[in-house]
């Protein structure tokens, strides 16, 4: 092989191996560009598959071979070509484009790609200085997850500065419009409560709510800049958090007069480490609020309500519940499939329960009253309250006659239990009941036991459990198998494992009939194995 051809081939191979970074850039985008997440997903993908572990070892051996000086040019290029093929395949299952979410070429992503390219170029330049340019280029491809992680760290300060311009615009708009701000947080139920509240305010108060799950700095700034208009009386801000201090930072420029805490659970426990840390992060929303609405059905939140009431900072505490009438607002299910609404123990009205979350509705009612909605107007609006999309929404597919329970968004242990209870109420005696789920994630040390419990609970309600992906497969199979083998009342006939949600849907279509019921519980994006 001529020298010029060898150089061209080496350059092509060196560039090609860098393409693997696109896989991990997409993971970074799906994880909100947060540094530290790439390593977690690297571990997930390589723990989940022996094939990926084997490719990792083979790639390492080839990489070592690329540094050998006593091999000829042809041998080096053969090793490099094999290395490129190996690295581009790693990890098997994680695609470049994605099925559930495509790589969105936003301005931020383009800046990230530029930095990734500069890191790879610098690494190759160092290799050139040391006499191993091709080997160092291959090293950059092999270490693509680490390269993308480094790029996320390096670009974070720039992205924060660029975002500050939009935050400043939003702060100025809030100052000019001067709406009353209702801040809503909680381990789950934030979006549902926000939508319930927006519905209850209609006709009484001019309100704007942050759309969908726009609950971080960028999303809330965009919601304010695009939607907050003069004359708006109430702005409903859903506030999420992935770590301590994030809600406090949001409240610094979107100070809520009314703070709502919907629930407390192990959601994002992986990030926080303990429920005590989660509670402290959620309580940041109360610091500037004059009114705090809190769900006391969770013991930690009940204790927090007492502590807030006795603190030096004067706040009015409004307690809500789905259990006790001692709360200020109670929304309590009865045996007739209704939700009874009580204000300070006195009955206000009732509505069909449907799939309405009682404590989320109680939070929304308390907030609506604080925003000036009268009890009579509340009664008139209660019948308009519905579940948000993908949160335990029920529909019958016309062409098949199959009833679908869609609970695909942000599954958590409490929500999963409620969804299974809804499934149990559905269908006749001849109905086959399916549960399609990849399980629950970001639960830290509780992830395996919570998914094991979910599998066991499914075994008492469903005829078929279809497990999507590998992330929680072992836990779900274990729990379901225990229910199947040891629980006399178990009706579970089949435990099916599939690669992705499309395969699960195909299975349901193949084995279901009119009158059957299928619960879709959670839907992980495809950057999970």
From TrEMBL:
Gene3D superfamilies: Mur ligase, C-terminal domain, Mur-like, catalytic domain. Residues 184-324 form the Mur ligase central domain. The keyword Transmembrane helix applies. InterPro entries: Mur-like_cat_sf, Mur_ligase_C, Mur_ligase_C_dom_sf, Mur_ligase_cen, MurCDEF_CellWall_CoF430Synth. Residues 396-519 form the Mur ligase C-terminal domain. The chain crosses the membrane at residues 6-25, 45-68, 74-96, 112-130. Keywords: ATP-binding, Ligase, Membrane, Nucleotide-binding, Transmembrane, Transmembrane helix. SUPFAM superfamilies: MurD-like peptide ligases, catalytic domain, MurD-like peptide ligases, peptide-binding domain. It comes from the Bacteria. One of its GO terms (molecular function) is ligase activity. PANTHER family: UDP-N-ACETYLMURAMOYL-TRIPEPTIDE--D-ALANYL-D-ALANINE LIGASE (PTHR43024:SF1). This is Mur ligase family protein. The lineage of its organism: Bacteria, Bacillati, Actinomycetota, Acidimicrobiia, Acidimicrobiales.
């Amino acid at each position: 092989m001529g020298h010029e051809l060898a150089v061209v081939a080496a350059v092509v191979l060196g560039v090609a191996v860098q393409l693997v970074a696109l896989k991990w850039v997409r993971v970074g985008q799906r994880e909100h560009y947060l540094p530290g997440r790439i390593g977690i997903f690297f571990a997930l993908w390589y723990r989940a598959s022996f094939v990926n572990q084997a490719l990792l070892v083979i790639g390492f051996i080839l990489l070592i071979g690329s540094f050998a000086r006593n091999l000829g040019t042809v041998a080096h290029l053969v090793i490099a070509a094999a290395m490129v093929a190996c690295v581009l395949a790693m990890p098997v299952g994680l695609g470049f484009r994605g099925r559930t979410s495509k790589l969105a070429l936003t301005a931020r992503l383009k800046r990230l790609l530029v930095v990734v390219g500069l890191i790879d170029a610098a690494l190759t330049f160092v290799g050139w200085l040391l006499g191993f340019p091709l080997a160092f280029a291959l090293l950059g491809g092999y270490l693509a997850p680490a390269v993308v992680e480094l790029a996320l760290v390096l670009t974070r300060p720039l992205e924060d500065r660029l975002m500050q311009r939009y935050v400043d615009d939003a702060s100025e708009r809030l100052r000019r419009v001067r709406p009353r701000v209702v801040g809503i947080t909680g381990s789950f139920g934030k979006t549902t409560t926000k939508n319930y509240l927006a519905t209850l305010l209609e006709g009484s108060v001019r309100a704007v709510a942050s759309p969908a799950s726009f609950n971080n700095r960028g999303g809330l700034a965009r919601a304010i800049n695009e939607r907050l208009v003069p004359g708006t009386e109430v702005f409903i801000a859903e506030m999420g958090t992935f770590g301590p201090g994030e809600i406090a930072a949001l409240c610094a420029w979107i100070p809520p007069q009314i703070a709502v805490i919907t629930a407390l659970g192990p959601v994002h426990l992986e990030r926080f480490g303990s429920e005590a840390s989660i509670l402290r992060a959620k309580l940041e929303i109360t610091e500037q609020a004059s009114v705090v609405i809190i769900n006391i059905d969770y013991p930690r939140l009940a204790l927090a309500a007492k502590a807030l009431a006795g603190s030096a900072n004067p706040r009015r505490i409004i307690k809500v519940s789905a259990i006790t009438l001692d709360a200020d607002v109670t929304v309590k299910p009865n045996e007739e499939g209704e939700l009874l609404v009580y204000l300070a123990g006195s009955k206000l009205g009732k509505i069909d329960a449907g799939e309405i979350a009682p404590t989320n509705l109680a939070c929304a009612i308390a907030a609506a009253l604080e925003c000036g909605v009268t009890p009579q107007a509340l009664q008139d609006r209660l019948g308009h309250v519905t579940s948000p999309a993908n949160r335990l929404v029920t529909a019958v597919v016309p062409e098949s006659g199959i009833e679908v329970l869609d609970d695909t968004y942000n599954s958590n242990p409490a929500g999963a239990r409620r969804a299974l209870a809804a499934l149990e109420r559905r269908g006749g005696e001849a109905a086959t009941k399916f549960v399609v789920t990849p399980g629950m994630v970001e639960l830290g040390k509780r992830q395996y036991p919570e998914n094991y419990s979910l599998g066991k609970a499914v075994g008492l309600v469903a005829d078929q459990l279809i497990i999507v992906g590998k992330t929680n497969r072992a836990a779900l199979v274990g729990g379901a198998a225990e229910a199947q083998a040891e629980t006399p009342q178990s009706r579970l006939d089949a435990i099916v494992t599939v690669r992705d949600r499309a395969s699960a849907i195909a299975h349901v279509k193949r084995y279901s009939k009119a009158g059957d019921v299928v619960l879709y519980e959670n839907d992980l994006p495809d950057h999970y194995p």
